[in-house]
Amino acid sequence: MRASMDNSSGEDDELWTRQTSGTGGGPYKSPALRTQAHSELRPKGAMRTPLPKFQLFLVMLIQVAEPITGLVIYPFINQFIRDTGVTKGDDRKVGYYAGIIESAFFFTEALTVFQWGWLSDRIGRKPVLLLGPLGLMCAMFKFGYSTSFWPLVWSRCLQGAFNGNIGVSKTVVIELTDETNIGDAVAMIPLMWSFGSTIAPFMGGILSNPAKRWPESFGKFSLFTDHPYFLPCFAAGCIALLAFVVTFLGLKETHPTVLARESSRNPKAKQFIYDSEGNVNGSTETLLGQNNPVVYGSTDSTRCPSIVSDYAIIGELDAIPQEPPDPNTPTLLSALKSRTLQLTIVNFAFLAFSEMCFSALMPLMYSTSIEYGGLGLNPYEIGVIMGIWGFLNVFVQMTVLGSVIRRFGASRVYQFSYSAFFIVFLTFPFSAYMARRQGGMGAGVYASIFIQLTFQFFIPMGFGSIHVVIAETTPKPVLGSINGIAQMVGSMMRTIAPTFASSLFSMSLEERLPLGRNFVYGVILVLVAAGIACSLTLPERKNRLSSAS
């Protein structure tokens, strides 16, 4: 199997060389791939390109809207379902209906992520990114204002559909960076998830039912009396609205073809390009080595953006919109035939599935009584543990991930990060055993939780590193579509995982299966072992995008 992978990797590298060099067809005319080829010519020892901080901030604001709008409902969703009357007073049914709402989000996201990525490859990244937060805002307002169950499901479906463009934001992050700074940029992606997933439960818990919590102020308004969960949904929707406004005002387009089209239609933009060419005095290293915010209209005369400078170098800007399609330009279908890319997406599926299994099992196992194999913690204790872990995780992602990817390469970082799942799931039965033995939360239980959350720190690194691997194995003309496919696969896994893990947990409590109450952990550990084996098939291309001098 390893030999076949090496052979496949060689074929992919040969295809890559043929695509970027334009063999047999003269100069390669695809601007995106020409730029990608140029970045590979960067000499070793070149300085790291500064990050376009403001543009990345805008993209990260869109990223953080996903976990906030997705997770803000978790503290109150069970009570919300009871209040709708759909369970008819039977609390045993609450979990089933909550599962429907949870799965609806990821199901509709899975149905739409590819379409968003495909659309962004044709009309540009910015228009697609603007639609997401605007739709999320409306869906959140509708969710909080609903009083019956099925409108909640419909609103949740809309949230997932509009959140499907999250893959496009990852494409923009990649297009804003080069091989020297992409590690720092993608480190922000799991950071935003960690940040949003940390503050969302606090928002949902504190702002729910404000009429009872603050009767002197909110109690005077019938809106908050009749709709006790509208305020947290409104707050989350306002964050999405903020993301829409600042993105509309400040985000610049990054799609190379759209940039070229706009430049050809705008004489001032064309003059700017040729002025930039003149100012650098023909410095090939500068033209090929820069990929920074200058592309968005900076007057810095010492640097020229790689995406735009490419056209200036070739001297074919006027002919860009009229160029016939280059037969060497890779299509989506040809990219998907790459075994390396296929295995990369499979690894992303393992990561998304395992992460969601943990997200479902952690509060479920922690809250289950010790008698039935849990820890017997109350919601407040669980919230404190998750909150502290969330804030510490944000700090780790800010300070560690970028430098780790640059030092070891994205593939190795992913392999290590995913392997941490084995210890994370293994600590569940050990914690339950210690709780039964000590008759409660003793030192052994706390030590087990500490070990579990320590290894959990490494898992978000897997998301940042796998995005780098996807970028390394994907031709840029179809990068948006491939990111959409990867996001769709991830959403499908996140749709299945909660029901899978929770159902196995309930079945295990009946003790009619092998391993008894530990059956759920045994099954998931087998799947994690398969994921670890799959991670070893990832290509090692440290010097393409993930390395830095």
UniProtKB/TrEMBL annotation:
Major facilitator superfamily (MFS) profile domain residues: 55-543
Span of the signal peptide: none
Keyword field: Membrane, Transmembrane, Transmembrane helix, Transport
Membrane association type: Multi-pass membrane protein
Coiled-coil intervals: none
Chain intervals for the UniProt region annotation (Disordered): 1-32
PROSITE patterns xrefs: MFS
A cellular-component GO term for this protein: membrane
Entries under InterPro entries matching the protein: MFS, MFS_dom, MFS_trans_sf
Main location: membrane
Pfam families attached to this UniProt entry: MFS_1
Xref: SUPFAM superfamilies: MFS general substrate transporter (SSF103473)
UniProt-recorded Gene Ontology molecular function terms: transmembrane transporter activity
Localization of this protein: Membrane
Superkingdom of source: Eukaryota
Residue spans crossing the bilayer: 56-77, 97-116, 128-145, 229-251, 343-362, 382-404, 416-435, 447-470, 482-507, 519-538
UniProt name for this protein: Major facilitator superfamily (MFS) profile domain-containing protein
